[in-house]
Amino acid sequence: MRAAVIANAGIRNLSVVDLPDPEPGPGEVLVRVRAVTLNYRDLLTVEGGYGSRQRTENLIPVSDGAGEVVATGGGVTRFATGDRVVANFFQRWQAGEPDEVGLHSGLGGLIDGMACELRVLPENGLCHTPAHLTDAEAAALPCAGLTAWSAVFDQGRIKPGDQLLTQGSGGVSVFALQFAKLAGAEVIATSSSDAKLQRLRELGANHLINYADTPEWARPAREISGGRGLDLVVEVGGARTLEQSVKAVRLGGAVMLVGVLSGANHDFRLPLVVTRKIRLEGVTCGSYEQFQAMLRAVEHNGLKPALDDRRFQLDELAAALEHLRAGAHFGKVVIEI
Questions:
Q1: Of 48, 60, 251, 333, which one is least surrounded by beta carbons within 10 A?
Q2: Which is it for strands 14-18 and 28-37: parallel, antiparallel or unpaired?
Q3: Which tens digit of pLDDT belongs to each residue from 112-143?
């Protein structure tokens, strides 16, 4: 089979090589991977950004992938040849609160990812693909989709009529918008691009803010809420956006911390959080049980993930990662295999 491999940290060390075809053992499933999609985590991993929490030698990168079953090992009962499947992000976090074993089982980190033609995975690391989705759309769901699901529902506890703000037009933010609309929430979407803002409106955003034109966007966000403040902000920006997020939420509101795209270190005024009883909570994807719940909701509502217009092939993985880094994409960047 062909697989993308990083010999050592750095995009320059990424190449596509021929490897022996894997075979499933007891309790395992052999998947013909048809599509993978990129997260910012994948770029950081290829560059060795997670230090001791990842492998940097001979690693198959990219966490999110979908395809079809081509063989099963002994004892497998949930899948058969020809079934369309999507891989769960954390292979060993099945349910409940995470532990060290679960959080060290993310695909494309310490263990090989999905940027390959064939991948063997345990039966309990796969789910059936919703029937209305293509393989590329299914591949958009494991990391960004489940992270947004956790931020909006499981941890954010959004309800009909609540007000939520999303940042930008990357995978997590777009999924958060889509899930919030399923819940009946009112959504404020931000972006530095008027063209992307219009696409966010087409996905259901009720209000739009260009943060390049309005760096202090917490003020108009609060004005939209009638001065009360928002119930939830899905925070992906990090150092440059966290203070605005905290200022935008109501007393007792919540900020779900998902990403650090603008930097990780910040001199933050803690009294803003303490005196206004604001809940800051980190979101790290979710469990297999949560993934199944999200897939049921996606299928029941016919939700379609937003995919970037530009498509790549496996040989173009490095170019796809650079496209992601440039921030010109909208939704999920797809690599077809």
A1: 251
A2: unpaired
A3: 999 999 999 999 999 999 999 999 999 999 99
